[in-house]
């Protein structure tokens, strides 16, 4: 039996059809990636193609690595000579050899996002451009889109230059390119642009690589952009052995310039293209697949295709609507616990969500239950830059003892206090045995910082003012005030990029967190709030005790593309969350369709079980919102959905009393009471006041106080080594000792 016997007829056809252009257009889980890897094996083993004549391009490093593993397993000798890499890696490798032909030095530097940003800053400064009108990030994203479309500064000017703003952007684009070149640097998008430049201006080099890569394969082709398409077409022009595989229903990167017409028009560009459609899905149960089919059928203007499977029917797709997002996370994590007890490995479970900010509550609950988890290609909520910045502000307002926090924010947002000044302050603080913040307050006495004195005074006054403000206002109001005075939020809003939007969402999520805390606690105050958050961070260390690879994976839907898991939890299935508020408000049906494709991607990641969940009430943008369940739930044909849940999932509570707008801290006259649906406190504790207990980090101490808080018991312990600490019982996991 050969490896090709494990393929179905259509897959085999794709594998055996090695010459000429080939489009494999097929739904999720139908074996596109699998066919691709077998095709590589076939080329080498049966067709005698040399491994180095094959180029396989994937979308992410993780995908490239997975493909490499699959190919290694199929192909024996010589598999290391096959080029399997991302677009960017391919380009950088080739440019290293030839970029001198474009007037760059071969040891060019590749600028990452932060390098790009600093260069753009310099450029704008040199050109005396008002960054209020032209925020660097939005200029950068405009330039990036132009590059994705393979438009030079000149093209850009010719095409869009009719208005003043675009003329200025063309100027900036031109200057930015000039500066990159002076620095002998390429930004990320340039890697592709310069490679196409190289091929178009040097036919002999192009021909060399055409001869080299006689067989080209591209996975996830639906998410390629114009410049990537150009590159592939150029390379494939001579031998025309180009095989692209993709699924137009999974095109989810329109916002990054992905051009869905690359796939829809493939047959136009290559009229002799073979088109193979795969319709059998091998990944998911019937119920999951039918649910996915039901949802995606609502998109108009798609190439009709219907996936089927011989897999078992399996469980129905579960859907549950919880009262709040905390209950949702609680429910999901309990379910994970339950499955784990029945022998399911953590790594076979994944939690997917629409936006990064949604990870926070899941993370909290997972930590509470001590379940190991990892965030894929993302940063844990409390480690994100904006959250660390704002938490540092709150810490500094509460107490200036934490030097790191002060240093973190002293020049964020930028207020012209440089590293040298910070060093001088630090030296002074050490010399006089005072905190860093006290050194700032006493800056008058430090001769070396006189030039920065005015700025330091301003900073010190601002902190003083925050402290006064804090004494009379609630935490959420304080945070709002800080964002206002520092212009932190305004700066992000001005950027208007994907990244800044994600950061703004995180900030709103922090507000939600605070709002919830203020609702829950009888006596909410800044210090306790910060202490509570510190405990989450402390707990993070415990993860390391677990098996490195056996973790529940958390990731956004975008990062889940191409992957598969036995059990998938897809949270936040609500209107305004998924589809997102922005897409709904845009009034643009194509934005809803992109969200629907994303939902299709999410559902089709699941092999055995799929748990969809939603919350009736959720803090969004600092307000309690009552969200209807997502339209995508309604689009799943009822017979595939767990109907039991449907009964309990009646329309939202009578909504007549819905608050028009919930104001932070407007304690009086609140129309609803969060404590009605709060998480139950942990059961009885097995220690009491006076007992000796042990903490994983602080060591042994004596319990001094136990108070029953809203969500949990609060325990105060006098530790022998580190003194008195207050903590939540469920986090502290204190063990009684003799
Ligand atoms: N003929 C087959 N026989 C058995 N299993 C198969 C077959 N074809 C594919 N599979 C399995 O089905 C699953 C999905 O395959 P694959 O990842 O290649 O699908 P895909 O079309 O690339 O999906 P996606 O669109 O999500 O990227 C994999 O676990 C794969 O091993
Ligand atoms: Mg795939």
From TrEMBL:
GO cellular component, one term: cytosol
Residue ranges of domain UvrD-like helicase C-terminal in the record: 286-562
Signal peptide location: none
Pfam name, any one: PcrA_UvrD_tudor
Any single GO BP term: recombinational repair
InterPro entries: ATP-dep_DNA_helicase_PcrA (IPR005751), DExx_box_DNA_helicase_dom_sf (IPR013986), DNA_helicase_UvrD-like_C (IPR014017), DNA_helicase_UvrD/REP (IPR000212), P-loop_NTPase (IPR027417), UvrD-like_ATP-bd (IPR014016)
Residues at which ATP binds: 26-33
Family: Belongs to the helicase family. UvrD subfamily.
Residue ranges constituting the UvrD-like helicase ATP-binding domain according to the UniProt record: 5-285
Natural source organism: Anaerobutyricum hallii
Single annotated GO MF: DNA binding
Name this polypeptide is given: ATP-dependent DNA helicase
Top-level lineage group: Bacteria
Keywords attached to this entry: ATP-binding, DNA-binding, Helicase, Hydrolase, Isomerase, Nucleotide-binding
PROSITE patterns named in the record: UVRD_HELICASE_ATP_BIND (PS51198), UVRD_HELICASE_CTER (PS51217)
Gene coding for it: pcrA
EC number, UniProt record: 5.6.2.4
